[in-house]
Amino acid sequence: MNDIVVDGNHSPVVYGIGVNVNTGDVFPSSFTHKGPAEELRSARTFTGGQMAEIYDSSRGLIKIGPCSWSPNLDIGFWLSQEDDTILKYLSTSPLAEPPHFVQHMKTTIQFLLEHPSSDSLFPGGQPQLYHRSERGDWERAA
């Protein structure tokens, strides 16, 4: 139901959805802000970690649990590649990626280069916690 074929290539009709929690209505949506610690969450997935449910609705907290990856300075190679090359080799579906895919990959790789070990991101093995400020922004919880 979410498939369109253009020039023989399958792509999603809609990349993101929103849900009105009061009515249950579903509608196409895009999200310019991806939540707190997007680079960390991306790095976890990029390095083979599992996607995880991180939002605790009962407490209004985002909890990013400790994860780890091995230093891999060889990934810096990708930052010097053409966008088409990154798209071709780092995507499972290069003909269907949204426009921001390549930039997202570059940002994730840069984050991994700046943090070759995740140990400093989780002092004492503790998760990172975020909550909404009074202004509605996500901020790191103490």
From TrEMBL:
<protein>
    <recommendedName>
        <fullName>Protein N-terminal asparagine amidohydrolase</fullName>
    </recommendedName>
</protein>
<dbReference type="GO" id="GO:0005634">
    <property type="term" value="C:nucleus"/>
</dbReference>
<feature type="region of interest" description="Disordered">
    <location>
        <begin position="123"/>
        <end position="142"/>
    </location>
</feature>
<dbReference type="InterPro" id="IPR026750">
    <property type="entry name" value="NTAN1"/>
</dbReference>
<dbReference type="Pfam" id="PF14736">
    <property type="entry name" value="N_Asn_amidohyd"/>
</dbReference>
<dbReference type="GO" id="GO:0008418">
    <property type="term" value="F:protein-N-terminal asparagine amidohydrolase activity"/>
</dbReference>
<dbReference type="GO" id="GO:0006511">
    <property type="term" value="P:ubiquitin-dependent protein catabolic process"/>
</dbReference>
<feature type="compositionally biased region" description="Basic and acidic residues">
    <location>
        <begin position="131"/>
        <end position="142"/>
    </location>
</feature>
